[in-house]
Amino acid sequence: MPSYVEVFRVQGFLPAFIALSLSTWGDYIARISVAFVVRERTGSDLAMAATFAVSLLPSILGRSLLSPLADRIPYKHVLVGSDVVRGLFVVAIMLAVGEGSHVALLLALLFGLELFGGPAGAAHQILLTDLFPDRRAFMRARGISTLAEQVNQAIGLSVGGVIVTALSARGALLADLATFVVSAVLFAVAVRVRPVSGEPSPGITGFFRDVVGGARYLAGHRVLTFLLSLSLVAMLGVVAPEAVAIPYVLDHQLPEWLGGVLMAAPVVGAVAGVVVVGRWQPEVATGRIISMALLMPVPLLVTSLVPVTAQWLPVTWLLWFTSGVLQAFMLPLQATFALVVAPELRGRVIGLAGAATMSLSALAFLLSGWLSETFSPPAAVTICAVLCLAGVALLAARWPRQALASTVDVAFNDATKHRDR
After folding, report:
1. Cα dihedral: 404, 405, 411, 416 (round 10)
2. What angle do CA 326, 248, 40 make, to 5 degrees?
3. Which residues have CB under 8 Å from 377's CB, separation 6+?
4. How confident is the model at residue 341 (pLDDT cuts 50, 70, 90)?
5. Which of 7, 75, 92, 193 is most exposed, with minimal Cβ within 10 Å?
6. Res. 416: pLDDT tops 50
7. Which domains does the chain carry?
8. Under a CB-based contact definition with an 8 Å cutoff, are residues 106 and 170 in contact?
9. What is the pLDDT of residue 198?
10. Burial of 37 from C-beta contacts in 10 A (0-12 / 13-18 / 19+)
11. Who contacts 221 (Cβ-Cβ below 8 Å, separation ≥6)?
């Protein structure tokens, strides 16, 4: 595998890496800031969980309906435009918070902010595939980006909670605005304009025809279908701890700032997992996807057995951290998925897959919030873990090991051989 130094030496990767990190901080600081405001005004766990669901719902629409823009418009313009528009929505949220606006308006503005983040995700993945014709270097770059995303999620969640507690939601949102501004400048200066691949269908009708074509391509590809299905089922185990972390501490009179720290536990675990998995060759990493997915929800099963007190909170944190470590199977899954898709279809197919994953994430947030209010936050995590394990077990029984191995060999080795020639 290429070294980290080799990856960062590739022109354009470092500024894109920094810009993506800043955008991630912005997204998570905005979410937790609005979540705290909603919980404060409503006192409802379900309303707070709905805030996170609302932050995911527009990503569904943005990824499914707007991601095809990355197949039509040079990805540099998509990345810069996305950051500028999201920065404007942050300004609107700051004004709404300051004027004591209704919760519905806050959620609507958060919806808009997240909507325009959808096409940026697909555009960034296309950028990486262009920057790294050596697919093993791409795998390492994807690992670095995933690692950074997990670290930045932890920073956004933890720092967002601390800023809201120490200052105010408006103070956190001001920091949020700065992240989007700097990110837009970096993309504008450092990323070169490259033409799109293929010839998209003309007109608005052609735009939606391309979306449908991407869906048909995805549904007809067996390996891609299984990879996406596993990603969807895993969301139950990935989302549950994040969805109930704040009620977990607030319902038991623990300090508010611990909610963000507990929420970050699986994210920090995922960072550790990606560090390890990122060192594996693609053939090894993809061969262990299904085994790691089966183990991932196991630590969450015992959450309801741990007493909810300040003394026992580190135990819960470690359980959620361990589950996060095992979430690192998503790295080879996502890297393989991106490379297998035909270049001219990457924007729409990656967008549709992201939309499906976000849909399940939103449903998992709502389910976790409902279970938290009906039973308790620890019970919600355990129930979701049981459902996740059952779903992964069903997929494991029919997992296409040989087809996946063959696909990985073509995606990684053929491209490398072609480069060497």
Report:
1. 170
2. 125
3. 45, 244, 245, 247, 248, 251, 308
4. confident
5. 193
6. no
7. 4-420 (1.20.1250.20)
8. no
9. 61
10. buried
11. 340
